[in-house]
Amino acid sequence: MKRLEGGYTPMSHEQAFAEHAPAPDDRAAAAAAGASNARLRAGAQVVLVALSFYVAVESLGLGLWTSFGPGPGFFPFVLAIALGLLALAWAAQTRRARADEDGPAERTDVGHAAAVLGSLVVLAAVMDLAGYQISVFAFLMFHLKWRAGRSWALSLVLSLAGSVGVYHGFDQGLMVQLPPSAIPLLAGWGL
């Protein structure tokens, strides 16, 4: 096989899972862990669908549209619908995967989840000070360049589109102000 940069040899996911197959005496423990994970996933899916339904109903009471543009309930409603649809898609994928039980077990990467949650906490903490554009740009660069290992060009383009592009789209297209920087020098530059 052809070796890639960094000495990695590409292989199919079947080959990768075959190399890391559990030992025969570990199969019972893996089956018990799989059943526990299945119950946890099903519970999470039910909670997400119920939460999305509740938020959608409550956001209708806030009003979806005003004469000036989107009302206070518009974005919670849209996000609630998106959350509900994604939770239902997740449930359908889980059900379809159950039909193919002999496939490799799904592995969970706790480090990745911790990095995402930690970076979201940092993003929320610095958003008021640094503003939307700078904080979201740093957040996206962290995940695209350093966590996912994407190229500099792709990381810069996607981070600029997700921060500066979204900021101006909301500001000029929807007439919704996202938080500017609280630092006077940065606010003077339009950040």
Structural notes for this entry:
With 191 residues, this protein is an all-alpha fold. It contains seven helices and two strands. A two-stranded antiparallel sheet has the order 1-2. A hairpin with a 2-residue loop joins strand 1 (65-66) and strand 2 (69-70). The chain is globular. The chain starts with 12 loop residues before the first helix and ends with a helix. The mean pLDDT is 81.
Work out the number of β strands. Answer: 2
Q: What is the C-alpha radius of gyration, as a whole number of Å?
A: 22 Å
Helical proportion?
over 70%
The helix/strand class is mainly alpha
Which features does this protein show?
191 residues; mainly alpha
SSE topology:
Layout: H1 13-19, H2 27-62, E1 65-66, E2 69-70, H3 74-99, H4 110-130, H5 132-147, H6 152-174, H7 184-188
Antiparallel strand pairs: 1-2
In short:
The protein starts with 12 loop residues before the first helix and ends with a helix. The mean pLDDT is 81.
